[in-house]
Amino acid sequence: MQVHYKKTLYSIGISINMKPSEIREMKQEDMQVKLQEMQKKLFELRCQNVTEKNENSHAIKNCRKDIARMKTVLNEKRSGN
After folding, report:
1. The domain over range 2-79 is classified in CATH as 1.10.3110
2. What is the DSSP string of 10-22?
């Protein structure tokens, strides 16, 4: 069951719980592009959740957490830490 869950998330372009160390290795411009992509995916997931039955209820939560991690690392880089 869990393998299917991971394949579903990867198929729609959402990584599963990105680690902050993985995010810190990215360039700031790449992080901003990825952040925009993740926000679009979150919007699509929310639309799917309203319009049709969403078989993966944790995808929205995981996407929101990944967005928060990305924003945290972006703010760290901007402040110079």
Report:
1. no
2. HHTT--SS--HHH
